[in-house]
Backbone:
């Protein structure tokens, strides 16, 4: 039991200790509970603070998130910008590299340009120097030109005088002889026979010979006949003229010899060119010619030459005015070929102005001319009027004289000189004799032929009288009034006028006698000189 009591005491001591311990524990627990409470308060506070802080942090976080997003966006934008900038940089780099290449090239170019510029500068300076030298030279040339122009004008005046002297030395009356070729119309048709053609050609060759192969001044005609005693008789006639043109001579060759005379017109001289010969001998062909360049005749060529000459003389101060008239003399009556009516019925009178030396014909058309083309229109017009007249009066054109006159008035504004010349181109009526003309039984034809013969012999007489006057017989009467033709041409045949007669011949043996008559008439003219040295001519024959 003691043990028990001891035990109980022990237990009670344990219990007390334990109760003390419990109290202590309780105190401790209380303290701890207080501590716990304060800790829990503290925790609450901490929690609250933490929650607040958390909330603040969340707000902060959200703010930060937004900022991050914004920053990200900014970053993205920046990256985009950066990318773009990079691209720009890359392209700029490429440009820069390109530019630097270009720069290098440009630098090279600039330096070469500078070198070129330097060279150009030097060249320019040299050119400027050359220019000023040239200007000085030009100035001296200008002065020289003015001097030369004066000299040229003086030379032109001298040339005119010399040209005139040359023309005078050649003779103020010249005669050319032109034989036309044998034509197909000369061979009889129908029943054309080539042997007959050959025979005629041989006959022509035997009839006319041109002995002077150098100067072409002679023509020899020969014929053989049987005398009464049965002996063969050969006759030869040699004629010499200023120029003889063989059948093959072209219009250009003939004109070459005449062109000098055309020039005299622009120098203020009167020139007459006559075509003389029997009908069909080639007078119209020589004067008017055909329509082609090769066949065009003396009238258009002379007119062309006068216009050309006038144009050239413009540079020497000459200004020309030209006018033309075209008349026909038929049966001693003047007809105006440029008249308006089909057939000229007006009465025309010839008037000479003693003061001016000008000849005018009343009531005729004088056409101002400014170009050769106008002249050819005028010739065609005259030709058509002649054709009308020809149908009205059988073959009239060959039975009348046609006179184309080109008047040329010139004034030189620089030298004060003036001139007044005329070019008369005359297609004379056929020169056949009465028996050949078939006029014997025809009264009208007889009158025509007598008039033609009268005017042609009047022309011969005037020329012969002019020749005598030129040889010293100063009081010699010149029978200009003996025919309308010579009266019309009075002023163009007298003084120091220049006359050319183109004697046209047919090559046919059947025309021998007509040809001889024509040649004798032309020889009479050729032996005449107006005021200057007489020409040497010879005629041999029966
Ligand atoms: N040199 C020549 N070359 C070629 N044909 C020519 C030549 N001369 C004249 N004829 C020709 O001869 C023919 C007669 O010539 P043209 O009419 O000129 O003679 P004409 O003497 O004027 O005659 P008419 O007195 O009848 O007017 C014409 O057919 C013409 O073409």
Residues:
């Amino acid at each position: 039991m003691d043990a028990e009591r001891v035990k109980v005491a022990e237990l009670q001591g344990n219990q007390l200790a334990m109760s003390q311990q419990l109290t202590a524990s309780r105190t401790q627990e209380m303290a701890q509970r207080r501590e716990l409470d304060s800790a829990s308060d503290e925790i609450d506070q901490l929690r609250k603070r933490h929650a607040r802080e958390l909330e603040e942090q969340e707000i902060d976080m959200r703010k930060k998130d937004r900022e991050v997003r914004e920053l990200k966006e900014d970053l993205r934008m920046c990256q985009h910008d950066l990318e773009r900038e990079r691209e720009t940089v890359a392209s700029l780099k490429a440009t820069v590299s390109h530019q630097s290449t270009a720069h290098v090239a440009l630098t090279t170019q600039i330096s070469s340009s500078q070198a070129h510029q330097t060279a150009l500068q030097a060249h320019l300076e040299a050119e400027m120097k050359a220019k000023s030298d040239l200007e000085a030279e030009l100035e001296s040339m200008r002065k020289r030109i003015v001097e030369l122009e004066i000299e040229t004008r003086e030379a032109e005046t001298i040339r005119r005088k010399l040209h005139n002297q040359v023309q005078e030395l050649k003779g103020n009356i010249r005669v050319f002889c032109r034989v036309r070729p044998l034509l197909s119309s000369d061979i009889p048709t129908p029943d054309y026979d080539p042997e007959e053609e050959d025979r005629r050609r041989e006959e022509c060759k035997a009839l006319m010979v041109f002995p002077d192969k150098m100067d072409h001044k002679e023509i020899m005609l020969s014929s053989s006949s049987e005398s009464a005693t049965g002996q063969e008789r050969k006759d030869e006639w040699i004629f010499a003229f200023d120029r003889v043109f063989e059948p093959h001579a072209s219009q250009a060759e003939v004109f070459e010899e005449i062109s000098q005379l055309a020039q005299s017109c622009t120098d203020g001289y009167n020139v007459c060119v006559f075509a003389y010969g029997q009908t069909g001998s080639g007078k119209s062909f020589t004067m008017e010619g055909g329509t082609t360049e090769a066949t065009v005749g003396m009238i258009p060529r002379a007119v062309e030459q006068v216009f050309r000459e006038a144009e050239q003389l413009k540079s020497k101060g000459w200004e020309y005015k030209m006018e033309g008239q075209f008349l026909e003399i038929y049966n001693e009556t003047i007809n105006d070929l440029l008249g308006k009516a089909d057939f000229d019925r007006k009465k025309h009178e010839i008037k000479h102005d003693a003061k001016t030396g000008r000849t005018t014909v009343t009531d005729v058309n004088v056409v101002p001319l400014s170009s050769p083309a106008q002249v050819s229109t005028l010739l065609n017009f005259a030709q058509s009027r002649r054709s009308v007249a020809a149908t009205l009066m059988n073959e009239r054109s060959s039975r009348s004289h046609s006179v184309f006159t080109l008047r040329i008035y010139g004034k030189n504004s620089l030298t004060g000189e003036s001139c007044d010349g005329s070019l008369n181109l005359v297609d004379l009526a056929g020169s056949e004799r009465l028996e050949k003309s078939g006029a014997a039984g025809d009264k009208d034809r007889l009158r025509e032929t007598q008039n033609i013969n009268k005017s042609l012999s009047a022309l011969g007489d005037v020329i012969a009288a002019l020749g005598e006057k030129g040889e010293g017989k100063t009081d010699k009467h010149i029978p200009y009034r003996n025919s309308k033709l010579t009266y019309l041409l009075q002023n163009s045949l007298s003084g120091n006028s220049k006359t050319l007669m183109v004697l046209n011949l047919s090559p046919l043996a059947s025309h021998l006698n007509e040809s001889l008559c024509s040649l004798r008439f032309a020889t009479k003219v050729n032996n005449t000189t107006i005021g200057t040295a007489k020409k040497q001519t010879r005629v041999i024959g029966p």
Observations:
- The chain is about 55% helix and 20% strand.
